[in-house]
Amino acid sequence: MKIISAALMLALFFCFAGLCRASANEAKIKRLDGSTISAAEIERAVTKLMSAARVTGIGIAIINDSKIVYVNGFGFRNKEGRQPLTADTVMYGASFTKAVFAFLVMQLVEEGALDLDKPVYRYLEKPLPEYEKYKDLAGDERYKLITARMLLSHTSGFPNWRWFNTDEKLDIKFAPGSKYSYSGEGINLLQFVIEVGIKRNVGEMIQERIFKPFGMTRTSMTWEARFEGDHAIGYDENEKPLGHRKRNRVQAAGSMDTTISDYARFMQAVMQDKNLRLRFRNEMLTPQIGIFSKQQFPTPSSETTEENRRIELSYGLGWGLFRTPFGKAYFKEGHDDGWENHSVCFPDKKIAVVLMSNSSNGDSIFKELLEILIKDKYTPWKWEGYTPYNVNG
After folding, report:
1. pLDDT value at position 135?
2. 138-145 long-range contacts, Cβ below 8 Å, gap at least 24?
3. Which of 24, 71, 200, 376 is most buried, most CB within 10 Å of its CB?
4. Cis peptide before 287 (omega within 30 of 0)
């Protein structure tokens, strides 16, 4: 029997290791129609789109079989400093925060601490208009109709933000529960009820019940000094830097800082039914109201359309919903000057994607990215306002 030399064994080891790395790099990511895409193909497509649309940076995560299979950062977190955006770069989550908050609310519903259909004013010690923040509602008794279900499904009748009104006062624009109209004010009212009415700390609960158990180690509802070393700044349409607002107050409608890796972990946990019984997860993702507005913003919209009836566009509790030939889908977005985020999950196929960009131009490539990455041709991009960068090209 011949003895294999140490040098030959070492050579064989490195050859095997090289083959393993090559195999990993060539791993195929499943898409909705059964086709696949490689990491190299993703990187070529993303780099080309970013250059054409002037997108400063973007993070991408893909989930297959309810598990994260791809996470990567592209471009810059700080273009002037030539600092790359990575999978662990802290970015502004914007309204991704609302989906996290909705998950927490459903945990409270599961525990019996909150009833989705009990008028929220009944949790408070005083009439709602007697609280300074809600004094504008004095004289409008319709506030007594508003429930947690309405607040999570954006059917409360509130404007998105009171300062969009000419007088900057909070008002109820239509009969609560009668139609969909996106409202950050509604989410903030539910946070107020939880904190003042049932005396629970929303920030602490989210940290202990969601961020920690799901391994979201670089996520917080307020800014933390430890993020200084690797965080993105936002950029406008002309790639002018806008900075990164360091929020010091928990706001359920949109104060969360997170990373593409961490938010993908949250999506993965939702898909895997973690920390929320199936009954309550299903309730969260069940249509509460059909959506017939021409576009999501500005709100409230008086212009309607039948264009999205074929996909049964609707809203659940904290998430948007629609149907496709590949089954149902649920989604959540996040927007602010210099920040564009989108997530969508197809639970029947166990496939999801998360996009986070530190560029106001980011959403101009979302339509193409969704098609390239997972063959999603069903997300209502016109309703979302995701106008492609080359729409007139």
Report:
1. 98
2. 140/171, 140/172, 142/172, 142/175, 142/176, 143/172, 144/119, 145/119, 145/175, 145/176, 145/177
3. 376
4. no
d(CA 73, CA 75): 7
Question: What Å distances lie between residue 89 and 83, 321, 357, 364, 391, CA to CA?
Answer: 10, 29, 11, 22, 31
As for how many domains the chain has, the answer is: 1
Is residue 298 reached through a cis peptide bond, with omega within 30 degrees of 0 on the bond before it? yes
- What are the structure tokens assigned to 292, written together? 């017939």
3-state secondary structure of 156: coil
pTM comes to 0.93
Q: Cβ contacts of residue 267 below 8 Å, gap of 6+?
A: 61, 63, 343, 345, 352, 354
CB atoms within 10 A of CB 115: 15
CATH number, position 393: 3.40.710.10
Beta-bridge partners for 212:
none
Q: Which of 286, 378, 373, 382 is nearest to 325 (CA)?
A: 378
In a domain, 384, yes or no: yes
228-260 core/surface letters (b: 16 or more CB in 10 A; e: else):
eebbbbbbeeeeeebebbebeebbbbbbbbbbb
- Asked if residue 153 lies in contact with residue 179, where contact means CB atoms within 8 angstroms, the answer is no
Q: What distance in Å separates the CA atoms of residue 140 and residue 142, rounded to the nearest whole number?
A: 5
Tokens matching residue 42: 């993703």
Does residue 162 fall inside a structural domain? no
Residue 267 in any domain: the answer is yes
**Could you give the CA distance from residue 45 to residue 30 in angstroms, rounded to a whole number?**
16
Q: What are the C-alpha distances in Å from 327 to residues 32, 311, 321, 348, 349?
A: 10, 10, 11, 6, 8
Listed residue (350, 360, 270) closest to 318, CA to CA: 270
Question: Identity (one letter) of the amino acid at 310?
Answer: R
Q: Using one digit for the tens of pLDDT, what is the confidence trace for 58-79?
A: 999 999 999 999 999 999 999 9
Q: Is residue 378 part of a domain?
A: yes
Read off the pLDDT of residues 138-154 as tens digits, 9 standing for 90 and up: 999 999 999 999 999 99
The radius of gyration of the chain's CA atoms, rounded to the nearest angstrom, is 23
Tell me how many degrees the CA angle 313-318-323 measures, rounded to the nearest 5.
25
- Expressed as residue numbers, the domain containing 379 is 30-77+84-93+217-242+252-393
